[in-house]
Every structure is written in structure tokens, then in C-alpha cells.
Design a protein that fits this description.
The protein is of the alpha/beta class. The chain has twelve helices and nine strands. α9 runs antiparallel to α10 (267-280).
Length: 326
């Protein structure tokens, strides 16, 4: 099997980093190096890594001034000695056989450059369920697939060092979604990408600041796709899919922005956002939400809170009339 360098950027990750490192140490494949890049943390991140490194020579601490995940990953890549690189975020976890399963795929398929794995949701309302339907099969992921379905790949991915040579590594100007940007550029460079539908890890979901996270995620994906559009001008099929995806994601972003304004009870901002949404809404439900949000945002907030309460009651195993039962 190829030797693997595990890349873990970490910024103020003291609450989760120890468990992440331990999940790497518990792998059935022991020939690896774990490069943890402290991205200017102000908590005990560096101390935690040093404590593990003092007892395990495979673990190395790299430090830099805060510059973002993309720069941190590139820092680790420059110090990596493995012919394969594995991404392990500081709050995610692997199953003990993650490396064995993923590296075996690379070994058995020398033409494959990137292997992404399915994962279980860890935390949040979908806890314990797989991100995508689970199976034992491999699926080829094309450039068109990546454009049309932005979460075609999971961050739990392994790729050959030659992918860095073909792409130049992560885009240091991006503060989020830099992995998605790399997959797009890798596919454009004719790297072969496969998705392993067997869940081999745990993708952490944090319940805090869900609206803000949703907006950041959508804004980041849109930024990546708009930058990438210039590469698709001579690819009519991919260009059409990209423009369709951008339009759909922009509507989702406006919905998220409107929802955030409602929750903050900023009804003036909500009216403005939903008025913009009305100009691009496509389905009847979107049009109705936009129209109500533009004219009576207070009513839309009541409906949203009622819906949230109803969902919580169902998850709690009982059905009751929201607002009339504690």
C-alpha cells in the first residue's frame, strides 16, 4: 500500500482535536505520518498536539500565523513525505479501517487519483445516518457530476501526490470550500475520481449558528463556481449545468439569508431579501415564501417557528399541537 501523509489543519480545535488524533492512531494501517497544522490558534491546540507527538513519532506539529484552512493544508503538503495524502479535519473522525479501505482502493486501481468516502453524520438531527446511501460499491465522479451536485465528494478523501502536481494544490485565496475547488480543478485536469459509498468516518455536525453556517457554505460554493466558470466556456454541457447550479444555489442563499433576518427579527432586511428572491423564484412554494416574506415577514417567522416546533415534537417521539404543550 502507498505510504500516506494525513493532513489536519487546526484552528482553536482543543475541544475535538484529541479524539481526531486518536482516531488516526487507532487505524489498522500504521505506516503513516500525521501532520497537524496549528493555524494561529489561541487555545490549547498546539499543546494537545505536542502531548501526542511526545509519545508517537508519527505525529508532527506545524505552526503558522492564522491564514485559513487552504494555506494550512498547503503547508502540510510541503512537509509531507507520503505518496498519498489524506484529509482529516480537526473535528472529524475515522473508523479504524478507514485508511486500509481507502488505500486498498488506490492500490487496486492505479488509475484512480482521488477516493472520497461516505461518512456518518456525527451530531445534529441526522446523527448516525450516512451522508449518502450506503453500499459497498465505487462510483466514478465526473466534472459534470461535481458541478451538478456540489456535495458529490466528502471531505474524508485520499488523493495521490500527483494531484497536487496537476492542480498546484489548494487555492490559498479561498477561506472556505477550498476542497470543492480542488476537486473541480482536479477533474478538469483529467484526474480520475471515485466515491466509496461505504461509510468509513464520522462527519461532525454542529448545532450552533446553523443559519450563519448555511449562508457561509452557500456563499463559498457560489464563489468557487463563479471563479470556475471561465474554465467551462468551451464545455457547453458543463457550462449549462454550472449556470443552472449557480442559479439554484443563489436562490438557496437568499432563502438562508432571509431566514437569518427573520430569526434576528430584522424585518426590514427580510423584506429586501425576499423581494430579491421573488425576482428569481422558480417553483410555487418559493414564490409563495418570497411573496409572504416580502409583505408580511412576521407571519413567515411564525410559520417557520411552528414548523421547527413540529419537527422537534416528532423527533421527541410524540406529536402535539405546537405552542400548547411544553
Amino acid at each position: 500500500m502507498p505510504r500516506v501523509s494525513i493532513i489536519t489543519p487546526a484552528y482553536n480545535a482543543a475541544d475535538s482535536l484529541a479524539a481526531t488524533i486518536q482516531s488516526a492512531q487507532q487505524q489498522t494501517v500504521g505506516d503513516f505520518e500525521l501532520l497537524v497544522v496549528d493555524d494561529g490558534s489561541t487555545d490549547d491546540t498546539a499543546w494537545i498536539v505536542e502531548r501526542f507527538a511526545s509519545r508517537d513519532r508519527r505525529i508532527r506539529l506545524l505552526q503558522q500565523a492564522n491564514a485559513g484552512t487552504a494555506v494550512a493544508r498547503n503547508t502540510a503538503i510541503r512537509h509531507a513525505s507520503g505518496s498519498a495524502l489524506a484529509l482529516l479535519d480537526s473535528d472529524d473522525l475515522w473508523t479504524p479501517d478507514y485508511l486500509e479501505v481507502q488505500l486498498r482502493i488506490l492500490e487496486e486501481h492505479p488509475d484512480v487519483d482521488i477516493v472520497s468516502a461516505n461518512a456518518f453524520n456525527f451530531g445534529g438531527p441526522m446523527h448516525g445516518t450516512p451522508l449518502k446511501p450506503a453500499s459497498d460499491g465505487l462510483t466514478n465522479v465526473s466534472l459534470l457530476d461535481l458541478i451538478a451536485v456540489e456535495d458529490s465528494l466528502c471531505i474524508l478523501s485520499i488523493f495521490r501526490a500527483r494531484v497536487v502536481e496537476a492542480t498546484g494544490g489548494f487555492n490559498a485565496s479561498l477561506r472556505c470550500n477550498e476542497d470543492y475547488d480542488l476537486w473541480l480543478r482536479a477533474a478538469l485536469a483529467d484526474c480520475r475520481i471515485v466515491f466509496n459509498a461505504r461509510p468509513c468516518g464520522f462527519y461532525r455536525r454542529r448545532p450552533d449558528s446553523m443559519s450563519a453556517s448555511e449562508r457561509r457554505m452557500l456563499t463559498g460554493i457560489l464563489d468557487v463556481l463563479r471563479r470556475f466558470r471561465a474554465h467551462c466556456l468551451d464545455r457547453p454541457v458543463e457550462l449549462a449545468a454550472l449556470d443552472k447550479q449557480i442559479a439554484g444555489l443563489e436562490r438557496r442563499r437568499l432563502l438562508a439569508e432571509g431566514k437569518a433576518a427573520l430569526l434576528e427579527r430584522d424585518f426590514t432586511a427580510a423584506r429586501e431579501v425576499f423581494a430579491r428572491l421573488e425576482t428569481c423564484a422558480t417553483g410555487p412554494l418559493e414564490r409563495t415564501i418570497a411573496r409572504v416574506g416580502k409583505t408580511v415577514p412576521e407571519l413567515l417567522l411564525l410559520a417557520y417557528r411552528a414548523r421547527l416546533g413540529w419537527r422537534r415534537s416528532l423527533r421527541g417521539g410524540r406529536i402535539h399541537v405546537v405552542g400548547f404543550c411544553a
